[in-house]
């Protein structure tokens, strides 16, 4: 140690100078490696205290003063000693370096201490002193060192002699320093572990400072040697003393090279340790350094070596690095891996090389100031990468897919960074041309690692675009296989090469790629191989000469025999061709060449699918191809901008064979395709002039190959709902392009197709409702119909809606279980149609005239029908002239149409119950509210048919036939509506009124007894005939119906057979009682004459208490009605009653008269003479003289009659005396 501190010390200086010097040092600290990122760093990749951001490297390479504002004083503080700034390094180099080694040793001792905070400050101070000294060396060399010159033979100043030896001494001391601190890789693990230490309030362990001091020293040695070489003007500096002692050669150049190589080896060793933690999927996100300082050291070495290469024509950074990496590659293929200098072990040297080269290439993006400069020209390392590619893609045993993906992802990144290199493409193609059938899967990735076949042409094209765009997503490793990485590399190299040399790259690659494919090669392609083949040529067509590539693909695919291909292969081949076709669409190139080939193939498959000789299994297989074609054509129409590139060739005669052979699910898919094509044709604007012609061609193809089948489906019992949607599409097409419609729809195709699908009563109602929903609310359709002069279109729409509502339950029982939601969907459609129809001006006008509000409709179809019928009837009653009324009747008949014809299925099928109820209710509303119109000559046929078909069907008159329960229930529930309407018509014209009156009596006669319960009770109240006498019925209606009902009952239900009472007498009488209590009759005389005799007879002949009770109530109601209108009206009938029955039923007659007395005593008083005479005549006929019992009964009656009765009693007593 004594030798180390030999030499003279500079004399002491004043404290003022010392203070000023310390201020300068604190104000401008020398750069050093730092992991501490604070607010000054902002978004920088490196610390502001480092060598890059601080400008230290830039000044070094530009040969500027390393620290222009520091070390300007006469003295400098180094290791707490004061030295003369201009002579310290010349006079005491060994001492200064000895102090450096001493401080380094102190740092190592600090790293063993556990007192973190105090030792941190001490370690930080030691490091600053060492860095300060190294910075002083750089400044000294820059400012004071001059190139060596030959010393003259004359006496030389001792300082000059020592100064001349400084370069040699400096080389020796730097060499000694490198030996003293050793390699980075030789540091203990606890020291290297501090590379991953996180920033914790800027308090770091001493081992962290020690490690970073190592980095500072290693980099400073390179800096010092570089400055020394620059100052010596390229002269080689020899370490004479070292050479004399050891006999080994040591120069400034050899020391720089050795130290640089050692440093690279150390950095590679650190990177190997880091690579142990790298997953293949994280190859780009996991960097090669544990600490930002190591990253900065890499960047410094790159900048320095590349700069020296330009200045002195030495090797660039990549050449230095490649020497070390090639040594590692010598162990590729061994199971043990590669050992680096007996310290570091690498199991995957090939992957490590890819990873390290890639990340080091990224570091080339940084400039001398540590900022990213993507525009700067970059040094490439393609020569070495080509060697790596050959190792990654060997001709014999292949590399695992998980490694190959990683290698090619790295290669892709390098392609983005460097200039184009076609050798990489040819090397990879040589490998993949032999492995096209490979799946390129990674087992441990699961589903993510499985190769998948693109499901659509659009997805194929999108994958191609992704390959060509150059953007890398974070999960690229999991989402794409190595072949797709190759395609990305191919696309990128082609694009870059084209930018620099036009078509030159394609000319070089064209032959190499085409030559690999021949007939045998094509036939050997599996499904995966075919997918890879298509993907390859899609990429080529996107980045090279598209038409040439597509032509070649077409020729190659023609080499395949379709009969030898599986369905999946053929489907894939079709999708691939459509992907090329989509590419044509994007480039605005006519697609007739590809479209014709594809449509011809489709037509052949469709023909086989159509044949009845084709078995079911084969059809299922063929459907895969057919659906693939339709999906692809749909994508073409959806992606095309103008549909002017011969797309009509895709819609050939094959579709006319396909649709009739489809099952339900297949037909739904096919019809959805048709809807899409129709919609795209309508909504695609024909911007270019030629597009109009092409649109007409497409429309003609649709009419020719699709519409005939659609037309044949309109009369199906339950066609798919998509038939309505497609028919609506054709309707709009006929409106937009009428000239393209077929001849049978001319001259007005819009009206003709509306008649076919919307206004024909034979079309399934659900189809009509869905069809009309599309059209009624379309203002363009309304305007077109108006312009064509179809002013009656609203009436037709209303009629169709009316029919749909009535037929909503037709075929309901036949709905398949798998279509259980059919009813709900139909009702939703019907509600929507109702909402739309109610907004038609014609209906709104009807509601306005009838003073009804549409808000009451609430989109409920049944309610809407009721209000509509009511509005029509009310509007008719408000009309004044016969002409208006006649026109209204005609309009109303158009609204309902042949209602009994299109509701006949309900009667024929005897259900369903909901349908019968709806039909009887709707027609009942018509009869009630349209009674004035039905009484006219125009509507009488409809009325007669309603009566004959619905109310008096033939089964009603056959004893061996019974009406279905559902039908009988519907009649029962809705009979009041019919009775109310018919009672109105009865009072109309005499001829029709007489017939209707007769039919009304028949209706009442049949249904009175049918709906009459066997005994009186609550059921009487709900009798449909009684319900017809509601408060809403007018007096005329009520009187006509009342008279008819009473006549029917009197003639058929209360007639005695001898002395035997009629059946269900109690129930009949209960009905009569309820009827009489509803309203006083306007014709009391008629009712009294009709009912009173029978009522009195019931009181005489029937002893059943229930009957007597009810008949007494009937008698009371009749007497009360007579009192209001004609009190004497019952006298005639009572007189006849007395005369007829007093001889036999004397006591019963007197009892009846007592009941009448209780109701109307005056009426009985008027009958006293009749009663007395009847008594006398009865006694005379009997010839037995006066009968005491009879006279006693009569006397009891007379006692109830007041004075007239008493007078009659006195008179009778006198006669008996």
UniProtKB/TrEMBL annotation:
Where do the MMS22-like C-terminal domain residues begin and end? 828-1201
Q: What does this protein do?
A: Component of the MMS22L-TONSL complex, a complex that promotes homologous recombination-mediated repair of double-strand breaks (DSBs) at stalled or collapsed replication forks. The MMS22L-TONSL complex is required to maintain genome integrity during DNA replication. It mediates the assembly of RAD51 filaments on single-stranded DNA (ssDNA): the MMS22L-TONSL complex is recruited to DSBs following histone replacement by histone chaperones and eviction of the replication protein A complex (RPA/RP-A) from DSBs.
* Cellular component GO terms held in the UniProt record: nuclear replication fork
The main location class comes to: nucleus
Q: Does the keyword DNA-binding apply?
A: no
Q: What is this protein called?
A: Protein MMS22-like
Could you tell me the keywords of this UniProt record?
Chromatin regulator, Chromosome, DNA damage, DNA repair, Nucleus
Domain Protein MMS22-like N-terminal, residue spans: 30-716
Q: Which family does it belong to?
A: Belongs to the MMS22 family. MMS22L subfamily.
InterPro entries attached to this UniProt entry: MMS22-like, MMS22L_C, MMS22L_N
**What lineage does the source organism belong to?**
Eukaryota, Metazoa, Chordata, Craniata, Vertebrata
Any matching Pfam family: MMS22L_N
Provide a GO biological process annotation: double-strand break repair via homologous recombination
